[in-house]
Design a protein that fits this description.
Layout: H1 3-17, H2 22-33, E1 38-41, H3 48-57, E2 63-67, H4 74-78, E3 79-84, E4 89-94, E5 101-105, H5 112-124, E6 126-129, E7 132-135, E8 141-146, H6 159-162, E9 167-170, H7 176-190, H8 203-214, E10 217-218, H9 220-234, H10 241-246, E11 247-249, H11 253-269, E12 274-275, H12 277-288, E13 293-294, H13 296-300, H14 305-315
Parallel strand pairs: 1-8, 1-9, 2-5, 5-8, 10-12
Antiparallel strand pairs: 3-4, 6-7, 11-13
Length: about 325
Amino acid sequence: MSLVTEFQALQQALNQTIVGQPHLIERMLIALLSDGHLLVEGPPGLAKTKAIKTLAQQLEGRFHRIQFTPDLLPADITGTEIYRPETASFEFQAGPIFHNLILADEINRAPAKVQSALLEAMGEGQVSVGKQSISMEKLFMVMATQNPIEQEGTYPLPEAQLDRFMLHVNIDYPDRDSERLILDLVENEARDIQQAPLNKIDQLTLFSARDEILNIHMADAVKTYIVELVMITRQPQNYSAELAQQIAYGVSPRATLALSRGARAHAWLHGQDFVSPDNVQAVIHDVFRHRLLLSFEAEAMGKTVDNLVDEILNWVTLV
């Protein structure tokens, strides 16, 4: 079985378990294959926790869920130094962040210091404890969730910290047919009727898939297209005065990198051996959603970032 076939089988199995959320499943795999992190926003009860937990069960790695609350401390995430009287020395006791897959549930419930402890590990690949810095394992992915309904007592993530997430995915309620399938699935689980399990994907296979994706062909014209999509957010006045009025701040260089790697992973998952503009357009909303800041005028007009990205795609054409 080829690498891409193995991950396509994993995607199919996840879609059968997490019914009605194919977009979330694909974006989880894109983040995993791109060595990125994922921010998921949606109402409660949409299987966000189950999705990352089910993915972790199919991988060779350790999973941990961290429930973010206002009384959480940075040491609860990173770990702390414990004094050992028998040796008269301090010994570091690792916290839950030292797992391969992390679910940061309701990340905006915790104060800034706790968020920073997690985001340092995501951005720098290390954790600072006292005078020492401890590197994370090669397989390290964070999926953070936010609940858009209840915002009282929350600590919104600053834009600079949001930028460390590769993708920001919005999910909504499943449709009628999916809801019926969910009902049948849960009843079968209650009766202990289980689907045949897949073989776990080991870390070497995952790293090989990442290397294969990095080597997938991307034409110079597609690279130029990606750069133009980024530049229009920073210099919208060169394209349209109306567009310039709606953009407060453009996207960062991290968006360029995320757009490139996300498009590569999307193409690879779909069995392509090259990256096309369609792959770029497929992931751009999730890449730009948390990085492109709207102006007051745009918000007053009822515009969303997704609306603005649609307009950007209309303005920029492939050279």
